[in-house]
Amino acid sequence: MATASDTAGPRSGAPAVNTSETIISIEGMHKWFGQFHVLKDINLDVKRGERIVICGPSGSGKSTLIRCINRLEEHQQGSIVVEGTELTGNLKNIEIIRSEVGMVFQSFNLFPHLTVLENCTLALVWVRKMPRAKAQEIAMGYLERVRIPEQAEKYPGQLSGGQQQRVAIARSLCMNPRIMLFDEPTSALDPEMIKEVLDVMVELAESGMTMLVVTHEMGFATAVAHRVIFMDAGEIIEQNEPSEFFNHPRHERTKLFLSQILSH
Amino acid sequence: MAAVPIEDRGLLARLWGNQETRSVIVQIATMAIVFALLALVLRNVAINLEAIGKEFSFDFLTAPAAYDITFSPFIDYTSRDTHFTAAAVGILNTLLVAVCGIAAASVLGVTMGILRLSRNWLVNRIVYVFLEFTRNVPVLLHILLVHGIVVTTLPPPRRAIDLGGTAFVSNRGFFAPSPVFEEGSGIVAAVFVIAVVAALAFRRWAKRVQVETGKIYSVFWICTAIIGGATAVAFLALGAPLSWDLPALKGFNFQGGLALRPEFLALWLALSYYTACFIAEIVRAGILAVSHGQTEAAYALGLRPNRNLQLVVLPQALRIIVPPLVSQYLNLTKNSSLAIAIGYMDIVATIGGISLMQTGKEMETMLIVLGVYLVFSLLISAFMNWFNRSIRYKER
Amino acid sequence: MTGPGAPAPYAPGTHPDLPPPVRTTGVVGWARQNLFSSPFNVVLTLLGVWFLASVIPPMAEWALVKSIWTAESRAECWGKMAVPEEAACWAFIKGRLSLFVYGFYPVEERWRVDLSFVLLVFAIVPVLYDRLPGRRHWFWYVAAFPFLAGWLLVGGFGLAPVETDQFGGFMLTLIIGVTGISFSLPIGIALALGRTSSMPVLRILCVLFIEFIRGVPLIALLFVASTMLNYFLPPGTSFDLLMRVLIMVTLFASAYIAEVVRGGLQGVPKGQAEAADSLGLSYWKAQRLIVLPQALKISIPGIVNTFIGLYKDTTLVLIIGMLDPLGIGRASLADAVWAGLAREVYLFIAVFFFVCCFGMSRYSLYLERKLDTGRESEK
């Protein structure tokens, strides 16, 4: 992946978190897929407004980690507390947390049978129980924010990958989440479309949203993140603020990874 | 070939060398061969018919059929009626078993398909074994087996299996009470219709309320309550104007009530569970074909599992499910022609069986049978084409 | 709640792989996840157990434990049981096994059927198993097999002729099934190419043929074959009923194959044909080398399903009076000495068909997996 510092726009909110309030707290969390130990003793606190980039080789468990935060994956040991609500088998809690946490997927996962606008209003109408007009107003607001209001009546299949991913971001934002999770949002995109998605994400960062982003876009990390986390083989190996992380990696595996990812 | 300049070759060779003219030549030749074959066949038919002194005509349709049809629930048929009436009885019997079979197969198939998706290993495996065994055995064998079980292993009417004194199972068929509508039942029916209309109106109203205020009613349950409640109240208020005609043993068989004869029963059951096995696989495959990412996205937005099913998974799965499902319905209808093996009087057994034997009109009767099935198929294909066009996703 | 061995003093990057917690593994964990994950699932599981407990033991008792394997008549068979009719009487099947296999083929000529069967095995192996050495040369034999087997079974040219109405049983099923399968594939492919061709006349003819065949039930076509077809032939000629049935079954299956293959052809990206065009390949070469191999690969499940359907449909010939296993079974049930053993007969035949058809569907799964490897790596 290219270094995208040129694409990431102006250096926004310099590494300083507004509050010290903890919004996500993960303690001693383990997860297994069958016999495979995929997440090992994860401990992570996220402050309100904090922006974290998670990177690491494929198969290191970074996607699984953020998928555990809104319970798309179930962890087997340890605890995850989001906004004071602990994630357990309790369906009520899962529902509360999912409506607080937005998620953007690598493969967009837009609903192909609904228009862009319907994609955005679906949850407002059926989860927030909003009148349609109001839901559409909100949705149009976010579609404008991601700069594709003119595509509202089209179907996802008629849009380019970059446009689809921006719709997906708008769809998540409609629920007015406190936290946004991004699972490799640009990995499935053609190079010329990556910028338009990253620009939207940078803008979102400037608005003070708490963000956890799994990505290899190091330019984005440098420009936006308060903290970069490096994962390998299911563990958090190293975390630091971006400039420290990239310039003075401490761990051998981090150095190896960075040399691989920045070498071309 | 390239060595010879094109102009130096014969006209035919030049035409053959050109792609467009070649295609015209091929098509003309094909037409000529097909017409020649058709002419030959028609000539053979004419000569053959003349040789045995038969003529091609459909006049026999107006002649008395002179055979009995034991099962004619819709038309009052006697052996003095015409072959045409017999054909009509046959068509209606085909449609009856097809409609009943489609209904039962759908319910059973969807149920088994959902059970196959269940995370319950035991139930999943039981259904899987049943599906695989049933699917891989000829449907004719199923029909004969069920018929054989009904006729040979069920007890005769005198020792019929008694289901609570009102319904009986015997080797002469299944006998159930049939409803007798008394005075006032018309009003109950009217109330029922009104309640259905009211429920539909409520559904529209609820939809509008949701659009305007966002409030969501559990439409399904309220509609069920409206229809069930209103009908029940009317029924009781009018003094329950309904009685049951119970089947009773008279002589060697049951009289009265609703009688399902063994042939119908065997054909219906066998076609239903056989087709249901294919439907189950279609339903399962259709739901699995909706990528898991869709469900994850719906969950991430905070939709509950049942809403995810209703709003995200089913609308997509149905597009995949309906086309093969309809072709299974068509298969069931065509398979109902196996009725002749157990003596159920469908279109093949009446006009293509007994009428053919009695009149010797092989050509005419077979043309009628083929024509009837072709009409069914064309109607269904027309529906499918319309459906496929109306659900296609818009893409770039 | 932190795990039992919680405060783990591992330096970053040194955490070992640990086994998952006991409650999620082993028999207990498996049962918890797969059988008792929710109250509803507990109910389902209990229902399943109840169902198995009430079905399996009586069935096993009927079919195996208490069944009778030697007897001369139904009366004798049932006499040997504690309670008449309580178990299966396999003696009936055993006594008629040769009838079920050969039909009424003359006893002294049955070696020809056996030999044909052995030859069939040799013909099938190179088709199914692609790592056979010298597979190319085998195909000459495979192509010659239908004629070889036809000669062996019908006779003539030095062998005593056998009338085809003496054919019957599983042998008849195999004859119709194998003939239908081997001839319907090429005809079906030709029809599919015709239907997708750019020549309107060819296209319309193929569409008419395919839609006609698919619109009517096979039994009606078999009736046509048995009653009406002779009118179409030149006066004085007639041909064998089995031959007519073979033709009808083949045409019937080929229409379905054609639709499956057409689906496959549509699944091949347009660029493939264009690429072949740009290489200067002729239509036929492009189809044979580029388009068809890919289309057939996509169509394998559909083709095998059609074959399975054809194989099961061979039973329909009993309705026009031919004695396939089901026909033999029904005739046997009419025998007063044995009447009333429908379950035994039908179960026996069902198992035969199940083994054949299930085998075919498993083979198609295997083939799909094998051929899919190339596409999987693209994703």
Question: Topology of this structure?
Answer:
The complex is a heterotrimer of chains A (264), B (396) and C (379).
Chain A: E1 22-33, E2 36-47, E3 51-55, H1 62-69, E4 77-82, E5 85-86, H2 91-100, E6 101-104, H3 116-126, H4 132-145, H5 161-174, E7 179-183, H6 191-206, E8 210-214, H7 218-224, E9 227-232, E10 235-240, H8 242-247, H9 252-262
Parallel strand pairs in A: 3-8, 3-9, 6-7, 7-8
Antiparallel strand pairs in A: 1-2, 1-4, 4-5, 9-10
Chain B: H1 11-17, H2 19-51, H3 83-117, H4 121-135, H5 139-153, E1 161-163, E2 167-170, E3 173-176, E4 178-181, H6 185-213, H7 219-237, E5 242-245, E6 248-250, E7 253-255, E8 258-260, H8 262-289, H9 292-300, H10 305-335, H11 347-359, H12 362-391
Helix pairs in contact in B: 3-4, 3-8, 3-11, 4-8, 5-8, 6-7, 8-10, 9-10, 10-12, 11-12
Chain C: H1 26-34, H2 39-65, H3 74-79, H4 91-95, H5 97-102, H6 110-128, H7 135-154, H8 169-195, H9 200-215, H10 218-232, H11 241-267, H12 270-278, H13 283-313, H14 325-333, H15 342-376
Helix pairs in contact in C: 6-7, 8-9, 8-11, 8-13, 8-14, 9-11, 10-11, 11-13, 12-13, 13-15, 14-15
According to CATH, the homologous superfamily of the largest domain in chain B is MetI-like
Low-confidence stretches of chain B: none
* Poorly predicted sequence stretches spanning 5 or more consecutive residues of chain C: 1-6, 375-379
Largest sheet of chain C: none
The helix-strand sequence of chain B is HHHHHEEEEHHEEEEHHHHH
CATH names the topology of the largest domain in chain C as MetI-like fold
Reported CATH architecture of the largest domain in chain C: Orthogonal Bundle
* DSSP helical segment count of chain B: 12
Q: How many individual domains of chain C? A: 2
SSE succession of chain C: HHHHHHHHHHHHHHH
Shape of chain C: flat
Q: Could you name the CATH class of the largest domain in chain C?
A: Mainly Alpha
Q: What percent of residues of chain C are in strands?
A: under 5%
What is the correct CATH architecture of the largest domain in chain B? Orthogonal Bundle
Kindly provide the name of the CATH class of the largest domain in chain B. Mainly Alpha
* Radius of gyration of CA atoms of chain B, rounded to a whole number: 29 Å
Q: How many structural domains of chain B?
A: 2
Q: What is the number of E strands of chain B?
A: 8
